[in-house]
Design brief:
heterodimer, A: 449 residues, alpha/beta, nine-stranded mixed beta sheet, six-stranded mixed beta sheet, B: 241 residues, 12 strands, globular, binds zinc ion, Lipid_II_synth_GatD (chain B), GATase_3 (chain B)
Chain lengths: 449, 241
C-alpha cells in the first residue's frame, strides 16, 4: 500500500510508431540460463530508451538529494516520456503480478526469490505498487528475464490493459480502509475485468476465498491454491448474486453457477501438497501458517515458470523479512519483532502469530490517509486470545484501541509514543504489531546495530 | 429469581455489517455482563427464514447498495421486526440500517426502494460521500453529546413522525435541517460509526433500559473512554476527508 495514489494516473498513450527507424542495438541483452531469449529488444525503440535514461537520471538525482529511493519519480518521468513504457519494458520478460488485500509484499518477495533460483528477477521491493513503481522496477535491469511485481488491487486492470503478464497471483480480498478504497464488490469486479483482458495469462488463485474465486473462475487457465481463510466475514455471501454461501471452508455451490473449485495445491501444517499428490516441507524462516500459504503461491509460480523445485524451496526458506515485515529491528535501544497488520483479516493472522506465548506485546494504530480515517474495523477483530496478558498500546488511535480492549476483557496500558511503551515493557523481545503508517514510520527509523 | 437472559438480535451482519457495527452488540453485551445481567446474542444471517419476533433489542448495521437492497427484501419477508417494535423493543439502525428502516431510499443507481417504514425518513443520494468525524447534541434526554464517524452517500429528510437523534455540531449528518439520525418511539437510527455505542455509552444504556423496561445502575466510565470522547470531540480535530 506504499505510495498509494488512486487518481491522476493517465496512461493513455499513442502507439508512437514514428520512431521505429532506429534499429541500432544500444545495449546487449544477456538472457539468463535456460530461459528463452527476450522476444524483442526492449530498448530498440528510441523513445523507450530515452524514457529509461531520463527516468534513471531522475531516480539517481532524487536519491542523491535524499528525496527517497527515487523509484516512483523515475518511473513517473519515464511514463511521461513514453506512455507505453510499461509494455515496452515488460516485453520479452516473464512478468509475475501479485495482488490481493493482504500478503502482497511478502509474496512478491517470495516469488522474486523463487525465480532468482533460475535467473535474475527485478521486483518493486519498495512496495511502490502502481504503474510508475512497475516501470521503475523494470528500469533497474534490462536483462533480467523475470519480474515479480506487486500490484495494487485496483490497478491490475491498467496493467493488463497494456500487456499480458505470464502469471497473475490472486491472494485474497477482504475489507480494508472502507473510507478510501471502497467496497469489495467493486474490487472483485475490477480484478475479473483485469483477467478478462489477459486470456493468455496463467492465474494462480486462492480457492478458499469466494471473492477471489469469483474474480478468477471465468479464466481458462487457473491453478488453485487452498490455504484456508482465517477471516470469513467478507465471504459469507456469493460475490456475484449475494446468495448466502455459509462456511467458505466447505464445498459450496451457488445457484448462480459459481462454486468452490478443486484445489491443485493444499497448504498443510508443515508444507504443501502439490498437484502430483506429493507433500513438500516448507521449512520457512518467515513465521506462521499465513506465510506457508504465501510460500506455496511462490512455489507454484516458480514451477509454472520452469524453475527447479529444490532450488526454489532452498531460496524461499531463507527469507526472514519482506520490507521489514516479520523482521527484527532495533527501536528505542531494544530488539523488537515488527509485524504489519492493517485490516481485520491481517490482524487476525498476526494475533494468531503472537498468541500462545508471553512475549511483551505492543499494538500501534494510526488513522492517517494511507490507513483510512475510520477505525471502526477494530471492532471486527476478535482480541479474546490476548486475555490474561498486559498489552501496551500506542499510535494516533491508542484510545480507540484501549476502549476496544476494555470491552474484550484485555488489560492494557496507553502510551503516547511507541518509544515510551518500549521503555517500560518487560524483558524479552517484544512483538510490535502496527498498522500501515505506524509500521512504515517505525521501520524507517529503526536503528543500526 | 432467575431472569431470562436479555436477547440481543444482530440482524443481517453478513449483508449489513461492513463498518465494524457488530461492535455495538459487543458493547451492549458487555455492559449487561458488567452489571451481572445475563445476555444472549441471536445472529440473524440472510440464510435464516425471517427476523425472530421475541428478542429484546435489535441492531442493524450498514453495507453497500446491493447488500442493502437484499437486506430490505429479507426484512419484508416476515412481520418479526414490526411486531417487536409494536411491543416496544428498541431497534438501533446504523447508516444503511437507517435507510432500510426508513420510508424509502434511492440507491446510487437511481432506483427507489421501499424501506420498512419504522421511521419517517426518506433517503436520496447526495452529491458526494460525507466522510469524517461527527459531533452532535442528542435530542434524547440524558444522552448528551454524541461522537462518531460518518461515511455515506445518502442524504436523509425526516418527516413529521420522526425526530432527529441529534443536532449536528460538526459533520454532515442527514444533510438536511442540521439533523442527524432519526428517532420514532424506541427505534433509533444514526449515520454514526465508531461504533456509535462504543463511543457513546449513555446511548447504549438508554437502549438497554428500554429493552429491560427498568433503570440500570450506572457504571463508572473507564478513563480511556472519557479521554477518547474528549479527543474525538475536540473543536480543532481536523475533519479530514
Ligand atoms: Zn451466486
Amino acid at each position: 500500500m506504499t505510495d498509494t495514489r488512486r487518481d491522476g494516473e493517465t496512461m493513455a498513450g499513442d502507439a508512437d510508431a514514428r520512431s521505429r527507424q532506429d534499429k541500432r542495438q544500444q545495449w546487449r541483452v544477456v538472457p539468463g540460463p535456460a530461459v528463452p531469449p527476450p522476444g524483442q529488444n526492449r530498448l530498440r525503440d528510441p523513445r523507450t530508451a530515452l524514457a529509461v535514461e531520463i527516468g534513471r537520471l531522475a531516480a539517481g538525482l532524487s536519491r542523491r538529494l535524499g528525496l527517497g529511493s527515487g523509484g516512483i519519480i523515475g518511473g513517473r518521468l519515464a511514463l511521461s516520456v513514453q506512455p507505453r513504457a510499461l509494455s515496452r519494458l515488460a516485453a520479452g520478460r516473464r512478468v509475475v503480478m501479485v495482488t490481493g488485500t493482504n500478503g502482497k509484499t511478502t509474496t512478491t518477495q517470495l516469488v522474486a526469490e523463487a525465480l532468482r533460483s533460475q535467473a535474475p528477477a527485478v521486483s518493486n521491493a519498495t512496495g511502490a505498487n502502481m504503474l510508475d513503481g512497475h516501470v521503475a522496477a523494470l528500469m533497474t535491469s534490462h536483462d533480467a528475464p523475470f519480474a515479480a511485481l506487486e500490484v495494487d488491487e485496483l490497478h491490475l486492470a491498467q496493467v493488463t490493459g497494456q500487456f499480458e503478464p505470464s502469471v497473475v497471483v490472486l491472494l485474497n480480498l477482504s475489507r480494508d480502509q472502507l473510507d478510501r478504497i471502497g467496497e469489495i464488490r467493486t474490487v472483485e469486479a475490477s480484478l475479473r475485468n483485469a483477467l478478462a483482458q489477459a486470456p493468455g495469462t496463467h492465474v494462480i488463485a486462492n480457492r478458499d476465498d469466494p471473492n477471489i474465486v469469483s474474480a478468477a473462475a471465468d479464466h481458462s487457465s487457473v491453478t488453485w491454491v487452498s490455504g484456508g481463510v482465517r477471516w470469513k466475514d467478507d465471504a459469507l455471501n456469493c460475490p456475484r448474486c449475494g446468495a448466502f454461501l455459509g462456511d467458505s471452508d466447505r464445498a459450496w455451490r451457488c445457484a448462480c453457477g459459481l462454486s468452490r473449485p478443486e484445489a491443485d495445491w493444499t497448504v498443510t501444517g508443515t508444507g504443501a501438497v502439490g498437484p502430483d499428490g506429493r507433500h513438500r516441507d516448507l521449512a520457512l524462516r518467515l513465521p506462521g501458517h499465513v506465510n506457508r500459504v504465501n510460500a506455496t503461491f511462490a512455489l507454484a509460480v516458480g514451477l509454472h515458470l520452469g524453475c527447479e523445485e529444490d532450488a526454489v524451496l532452498a531460496r524461499i526458506a531463507e527469507i526472514d523479512q519482506a520490507s521489514g515485515r516479520y523482521g527484527m529491528v532495533r527501536l528505542a535501544g531494544r530488539q523488537v519483532r515488527l509485524l504489519l497488520a492493517k485490516n481485520p483479516a491481517s490482524w487476525l493472522e498476526m494475533l494468531d502469530l503472537v498468541s500462545g506465548q508471553d512475549r511483551p506485546l505492543v499494538l500501534v494504530v494510526n488513522s492517517r490517509e494511507a490507513d483510512g480515517y475510520d477505525v471502526s474495523w477494530l471492532w471486527d477483530i476478535d482480541f479474546d486470545s490476548l486475555r490474561g496478558r498486559t498489552v501496551l498500546v500506542a499510535g494516533d488511535r491508542a484510545l480507540d484501541l484501549a476502549v476496544r480492549l476494555r470491552y474484550a476483557g484485555v488489560r492494557c496500558e496507553v502510551h503516547t509514543a511507541v518509544d515510551d511503551a518500549l521503555a517500560v515493557v518487560a524483558d524479552g523481545v517484544p512483538d510490535v504489531i502496527a498498522n500501515y503508517t505506524a509500521f512504515r514510520d517505525l521501520f524507517a527509523r529503526k536503528e543500526r546495530r | 429469581m432467575m431472569k431470562d437472559p436479555v436477547r440481543i438480535a444482530l440482524v443481517l451482519p453478513d449483508l449489513l455489517g461492513t463498518y465494524g457495527d457488530r461492535g455495538n452488540v459487543i458493547v451492549l453485551e458487555q455492559r449487561l455482563r458488567w452489571r451481572g445481567i445475563d445476555t444472549e446474542t441471536v445472529t440473524v444471517l440472510s440464510s435464516a427464514d425471517a427476523v425472530p419476533e421475541h428478542c429484546d433489542l435489535y441492531v442493524i448495521g450498514g453495507g453497500e447498495d446491493v447488500a442493502q437492497v437484499a437486506a430490505v427484501r429479507f426484512l419484508h419477508r416476515g412481520p418479526g421486526l414490526l411486531r417487536a417494535v409494536d411491543r416496544g423493543a428498541p431497534v438501533l439502525g446504523i447508516c444503511g440500517g437507517l435507510q432500510v428502516l426508513g420510508t424509502c431510499f434511492t440507491t446510487g443507481d437511481g432506483e427507489q426502494h421501499a424501506g420498512l417504514g419504522l421511521v419517517d425518513a426518506v433517503t436520496e443520494p447526495g452529491d458526494g460521500r460525507a466522510i469524517g468525524e461527527v459531533t452532535t447534541h442528542s435530542t434524547l434526554g440524558g444522552v448528551g453529546m454524541l461522537t462518531g464517524f460518518e461515511n455515506h452517500l445518502g442524504r436523509t429528510r425526516l418527516g413529521p413522525q420522526a425526530q432527529p437523534l441529534g443536532r449536528v455540531a460538526r459533520g454532515t449528518g442527514n444533510g438536511h435541517d442540521n439533523a442527524e439520525g432519526a428517532v420514532t418511539g424506541h427505534v433509533v437510527c444514526t449515520y454514526l460509526h465508531g461504533p456509535v455505542l462504543a463511543r457513546n455509552p449513555k446511548l447504549a444504556d438508554l437502549l438497554l433500559e428500554w429493552a429491560i423496561g427498568e433503570p440500570l445502575e450506572p457504571l463508572p466510565e473507564p478513563p480511556e473512554l472519557t479521554a477518547l470522547r474528549t479527543e474525538r470531540t475536540r473543536a480543532n480535530l481536523r475533519n479530514r476527508k
